[in-house]
Design goal:
CATH topology of the largest domain: Rossmann fold
CATH class of the largest domain: Alpha Beta
Largest sheet: 6 strands, mixed
Distance between the termini: 21 Å
Strand order of the largest sheet: 1-2-4-3-5-6
InterPro entries: AB_hydrolase_1, AB_hydrolase_fold, Epox_hydrolase-like
Protein name: Alpha/beta-hydrolase
Strand content: 5-15%
Number of strands: 6
Oligomer: single chain
Keywords: Hydrolase
Organism: Athelia psychrophila
Helix content: 25-40%
Radius of gyration: 18 Å
Number of helices: 10
CATH superfamily of the largest domain: Alpha/Beta hydrolase fold, catalytic domain
CATH architecture of the largest domain: 3-Layer(aba) Sandwich
Family: Belongs to the AB hydrolase superfamily. Epoxide hydrolase family.
Length: 240
């Protein structure tokens, strides 16, 4: 992505957002791209180039906690209703009244809230990898995991329970290659058997296991997209 088209903005609650912006030409709409976990705006590099070249407006933020955007430690700062207001602050700063918003993975949560809380700012919503996610008063991860297991025959959210543990972040940061390899392996069955199963991811990291990265994880992708690793001076090792 063209680094000259990146900007930084302090949103109304005092946090810095780093984002890509190219204004629309003529009467073309602006497209907002919202990445998932564990990615950054770089996830949308091909789409950004494609639509920018054709005169569409393009906004691609590093969402809160990722890339060049602020990374507050308090979990309460990551409430979707707050993040979506940050996104609207970006739209306001760029004079963009309405967007076609596209969310991938956890970006679909922010995409959903944009439609819930600011429908007047939306032309259309598109969801990739996950569909619309309604607001939740509370979330019982164990119950959700059991429900999905009953529906599809295997656990889908066991890793959520691990992420909620106090030592999860430390373990992931100590063994980033182990973590990324199971999530982006050339063997997709590991997502089911190791990553999303109850206790599976913690055991995998605890043992320091490694899987073979998929061929799509090039050095460029490893450095520029996944967890912003090279910005932090982390390992540049890659499988390709």
């Amino acid at each position: 992505m063209d680094s000259a088209l990146y900007k930084d903005l302090t949103v109304s609650r005092g946090l810095n957002y780093h984002y890509y912006f190219s204004p629309a030409r003529e009467s073309n709409p602006t497209i907002l791209f919202l990445h998932g976990f564990p990615s950054t705006s770089y996830d949308w590099r091909h789409e950004a180039a494609f639509f920018t070249a054709r005169g569409f407006g393009v906004i691609v933020p590093d969402l809160l906690g990722y890339g060049g955007t602020a990374k507050p430690e308090a979990p309460a700062e990551y409430v979707p209703s707050k993040i979506v207001k940050d996104i609207v602050d970006i739209l306001d700063a760029e004079g963009v009244e309405k967007v076609v918003s596209i969310g991938h993975d956890w970006g679909t949560m922010i995409n959903s809230r944009l439609g819930n809380y600011f429908p007047e700012r939306v032309i259309a919503l598109a969801f990739f990898n996950l569909g619309y996610l309604p607001p939740l008063v509370s979330a019982d991860v164990a119950a959700l995991s059991e429900a999905t297991k009953a529906a599809v025959g295997y656990e889908c959210f066991g890793h959520w329970s691990f992420f909620n543990e106090d030592d999860a972040a430390k373990l992931v940061e100590e063994r980033p290659d182990s973590f990324l390899s199971v999530g982006f392996s050339d063997d997709p069955t590991l997502l089911q058997s190791e990553f999303a199963s109850a206790g599976g991811l913690k055991a995998w990291l605890g043992a320091g296991k490694m899987a073979t990265f998929g061929a799509y994880i090039t050095q460029e992708v490893n450095c520029s997209m996944l967890l912003g690793r090279c910005r932090r001076g982390a390992s540049k090792r890659t499988s390709s």
